[in-house]
Amino acid sequence: MSQDFLPLNGTDYVELYVGNAKQSALYYQYAFGYELIAYAGPETGVKDRASYVLKQDKIRLVLTSPLHPEGPIADHIRKHGDGVKVLALWVDDAELSWKETTSRGAESASEPKKISDDHGHVVVSSIKTYGETIHTFVERKDYKGIFLPGYQPRSSTYTAQPIGLKYIDHCVGNVELGEMNRWVEFYENVMGFKLLITFDDEDISTEYSALMSKVVSNGNGYVKFPINEPAAGKKKSQIEEYLDFYKGPGVQHMAIATDDIIQTVTELRKRGVEFLVVPSSYYDDLLDRVGKIDEDLQPLKDLNILVDRDDEGYLLQIFTKPVQDRPTLFFEIIQRKGAKSFGKGNFKALFEAIEREQGLRGNL
């Protein structure tokens, strides 16, 4: 077996550039149950931005806003709206990770640098991937601080109530027509990922539109990136709608794992998070399609949670509507009961749900 030249310990954090990080941070605390743990901004010596770090179990979200109308962060938000800028990966050696990937063709976004404070030091480096998204390699074995040097501990007067979110299961990227294979090859050749699964337009299509998707995974399976591109259809696909509104390729959704999807989704709905709706007829023959499951059917139907099975078990999943006004980034909540797949049996029902939303927006 070939040596893994880019060993990854998992996702370190995901950074979103947003129009108003202070307000977004409160939304994620209230609606999703994240706890505010750290902050960087003018009070900590950072003059061009404010960043709030939110945590729940193994998930860290960083919400960053610019303090001035000029500069790369403001430009990013003006073009893309709120969206994911950084998918940060936790590594043992950030310099080696950068060297291995750039020597295989990755374009550098920032060379390895050591940043320090009283709690030790971190080494970070970054490479570019699809659109304006970057991967930052984070080496933190010599650091004992709250997040990264430059950040100070910060808590909120609002006490967040966690909802059972555990870790990031996968992050999905949308790219333009004809670009999917190029980016799959990038992950294979540059980062040593393996192709896990392929969905073509026969798998993921409705009467009106279709998409193609390939899933790549790193060696230990801790990091999985499905890559989507639109396929030919009678009308505009959800991927094209995303590309139109995001103004290019980017992260479409983050799938977040829970051990109790019924409790998690019940809480999210209570707090005002909106989800895609599949027709109640989806549940009429659900057990015939997926076989015996541990959960009662009624709560799944009441909450609109979808179920799919593969050779290794089954999964339960649900998708939020976009979490900002542009129809771009959304979240998936997923509970795996053995299944390693991505819910292929639900694609048609999901697509039709997304198309209904597109139709309401006038974008189908």
UniProtKB/TrEMBL annotation:
The record's free-text note on cofactor binding: Binds 1 Fe cation per subunit.
Protein family according to the UniProt entry: Belongs to the 4HPPD family.
Keywords associated with the record: Dioxygenase, Iron, Metal-binding, Oxidoreductase, Pyruvate, Repeat
Keyword DNA damage recorded: no
InterPro entries for this protein: 4OHPhenylPyrv_dOase, 4OHPhenylPyrv_dOase_C, 4OHPhenylPyrv_dOase_N, Glyas_Bleomycin-R_OHBP_Dase, Glyas_Fos-R_dOase_dom, VOC_core
Species this protein is from: Algoriphagus locisalis
GO process terms (BP): L-tyrosine catabolic process
Highest taxon above the source species: Bacteria
A Pfam family: Glyoxalase
Cofactor(s) in the UniProt record: Fe cation
UniProt keyword Iron, yes or no: yes
MF (Gene Ontology): 4-hydroxyphenylpyruvate dioxygenase activity; metal ion binding
Binding of Fe cation, residues: 170, 253, 332
CDD domains, sorted: HPPD_C_like, HPPD_N_like
Name of the featured protein: 4-hydroxyphenylpyruvate dioxygenase
Domain VOC: 10-140, 167-321
